[in-house]
TrEMBL record:
Pfam families: MTS, PrmC_N
Organism: Cellulomonas fulva
InterPro entries in the cross-refs: DNA_methylase_N6_adenine_CS (IPR002052), HemK-like (IPR004556), N5-glutamine_MTase (IPR050320), PrmC_N (IPR040758), RF_methyltr_PrmC (IPR019874), SAM-dependent_MTases_sf (IPR029063), Small_mtfrase_dom (IPR007848)
Transmembrane segments: none
Record domain Methyltransferase small: where: 106-187
GO BP terms in the entry: methylation
Classification via CDD domains: AdoMet_MTases
Known function: Methylates the class 1 translation termination release factors RF1/PrfA and RF2/PrfB on the glutamine residue of the universally conserved GGQ motif.
SUPFAM superfamilies: S-adenosyl-L-methionine-dependent methyltransferases (SSF53335)
GO MF term (any one): peptide chain release factor N(5)-glutamine methyltransferase activity
Domain of life: Bacteria
Catalysed reactions, semicolon-separated: L-glutaminyl-[peptide chain release factor] + S-adenosyl-L-methionine = N(5)-methyl-L-glutaminyl-[peptide chain release factor] + S-adenosyl-L-homocysteine + H(+)
Protein name per Swiss-Prot or TrEMBL: Release factor glutamine methyltransferase
Length: 288
């Protein structure tokens, strides 16, 4: 633990215990006394794992999994590791899907920029009536979402490779989606993350949103939401805390959304846009 603390690891004790459990082949470890004697090879393997973590390799990459809400998901280098803050984004999508289900309909939910499939699978497993479609540009993310769906999902999840900036994406679902949720890349080019675990290990494709403000991809998400959502459908999108006003302006100025608002994350920071598709899209879409 001291080695990890000196290396600046944010949660040295938690990580040390997790690494020890991994070395022992246990799902978790609650140590009162160290095992005596230690299993053969444990000391050497544990030391190697600690050294990797000391070098700020993400704990999730070392142990190969992470927990998101009620799910244990496989993670791999090259695919963005889901964070606890995004569980609130998933909750907003789940709440809306449950509201739709309570009316007797089967809610259609789309997760854009799905990464590991964390949000999509949370909806898939927590809202029995939901039909969920997950999309990502990265082939690695698509493959990992499919793996996680097979491991922990209901097997109803549809996973597609596609670019959120493509106006033909999910063309067969135009005007039918009840909830569109996304944790897109949104980091501006001059705001390189300070944490080595993020800066050196999360893929640039999942971090940097494009444009001077980092909002090119989020703008594309909102354009997709305007196209895909049914009248009254809800868009839920994560963003950086300094982007709340700019994201609200994008949504409002598009003319496609009403009830545009920002909600807080677990720490109270403004990190999530929610907005409803205008109910009169038939009139709006007929305008030149």
């Amino acid at each position: 633990m001291r080695v990890l603390d000196q290396a600046g690891v944010p949660s040295p004790r938690v990580d040390a215990v997790a690494l020890a459990a991994y070395a022992l082949g246990l799902p978790r470890l609650e140590l009162v006394l160290a095992p005596d004697p230690a299993p053969a090879g444990f000391v050497e393997e544990f030391a190697e794992l600690v050294e990797r973590r000391r070098g700020r390799e993400p704990l999730q990459h070392i142990v190969g999994h992470t927990v998101f809400r009620y799910l244990t998901l496989r993670v791999e280098p090259g695919v963005f590791v889901p964070r606890p803050e995004t569980e609130v984004v998933a909750q907003a999508a789940i709440d809306e899907a449950r509201r739709v289900a309570a009316t007797g309909r089967s809610p259609l939910v789309v997760d854009l920029c799905c990464g590991t499939g964390a949000i999509a699978l949370a909806v898939d497993t927590e809202v029995a009536e939901a039909r969920v479609v997950a999309v990502d540009l990265s082939p690695e993310a698509v493959g990992l979402t499919r793996h996680n769906s097979g491991a922990v999902g209901t097997l109803r999840l549809r996973v597609e490779q596609g670019d959120v900036r493509d106006p033909a994406l999910l063309a067969e679902l135009v005007g039918q989606v009840d909830v569109l949720v996304s944790n897109p890349p949104y980091v501006p080019p001059d705001a390189v993350p300070r944490e080595p675990e993020v800066r050196d290990h999360d893929p640039d494709l999942a971090l940097y949103g494009g444009g001077a403000d980092g909002l090119d991809v989020p703008r594309a998400v909102l354009a997709a939401a305007a196209r895909l959502l049914a009248p009254g459908g809800l868009v839920v999108m994560e963003h950086a805390e300094v982007q709340d006003a700019a994201v609200r302006e994008v949504a409002t100025s598009s003319g496609a959304f009403a009830q545009v608002a920002t909600l807080p994350d677990l720490t109270g920071r403004p990190r999530m846009l929610v907005a409803r598709r205008n109910a009169r899209r038939d009139v709006e879409d007929s305008q030149p």
